[in-house]
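Thread: Tail assembly chaperone, structure

OP (GT): Posting the sequence first so everyone is looking at the same thing. Length is 214 residues per the record. Can we get the structure tokens written out before standup tomorrow? I want them in the notebook alongside the other entries.
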Amino acid sequence: MSVQPAYEIDLEHGGRTVTLRASLRAATTLENMPGGIAGAYEGLLTQSLTTIRTVILAAAADRQEARTLLAAIAGKPLSRFVPDAQAACLAILAALIQAGEDSADEAPSQGGDEGAAMPMREYFAQLFQYATGWLGWTPTETWAASPAEIETAFRAHIDRLVKLTPGATGTAETTTKTDRDTYTPERLRQIEEQGHDPAFDREGLRRLKAQQHG
């Protein structure tokens, strides 16, 4: 997955502007709704005002601005608002769906079924755990980041741990993709469940840090 800044789009109406962001918060909120992101997509295609409002509130960088804009359109003709809002919301969903599809390429199978990819809801939940538990990000920082940003930062964190481990082979330039990919999503979930990485020499890392600060 190539990393890019989280996709954003401005929705303007009646002199008010709301920035919609394809963040982990938007992804998780929409996927946890009945029907998930797929259901939201269907609602947007029919120009459902309820769905449009839901997506705007879920993806708004500033939810107060979103509430103000939505309050301003109440009771007014929506012929000009709905098409612009629909287009902006569809763009956000397209970015989130792409993130979920990208994750399926490396997601482990479920229940031993090699053809079953990890559900997007589980994928988004894992990203939150990795960002707050492994990277040390605050929940606010994590919710605002895109899935791609979190995944890229987490992979860099794992690469750093591997390179700091005494006896690990390779450098940033010589470590092969195969070496890096030994930390697959399935293995990372197993490490999280066990509470430790059997292949990671934590005591060696502590000694290395002591030498560096000695």
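GT: Both are above now. Quick notes for whoever picks this up: The beta strands are 8-13, 16-21. The longest strand covers residues 8-13.
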